[in-house]
Amino acid sequence: MRQEWEPEDLIEVWTLLEEDQERLRNKSGANRLGFALLLKFFEVEARFPEGAGEIPPAAVAYVAQQVKVPAEEFAAYD
After folding, report:
1. Global confidence as pTM
2. Distance CA 58, CA 3 (A)
């Protein structure tokens, strides 16, 4: 997966839809952020990442804003 993303590309690819938000309702903290990132990554790549480094930092920050979890908490996601 590419690591550099323009803002409009982030919005198009990494925005959580209403159905995505529903899947996140029972999760909190690092689990909420990690699950959201895995969900969107899978939609783009049709696979799960082999490691956290595959997920672009810009995407982590953007999704973190949407789920209202600090991006730094992604490091705690197992």
Report:
1. 0.91
2. 8
The answer to whether residues 65 and 12 touch, using CB atoms and an 8 Å cutoff, is no
Q: Tokens 């490691």: give the residue.
A: 51
* Token digits of residue 17: 């839809």
What's the CA gap between 7 and 40, in Å, rounded? 16
CB atoms within 10 A of CB 4: 8
The pLDDT tens digits for 15-43 are: 999 999 999 999 999 999 999 999 999 99
Distance (Å, whole) CA 46 – CA 39: 10
The two tokens of residue 8 are: 């409009």
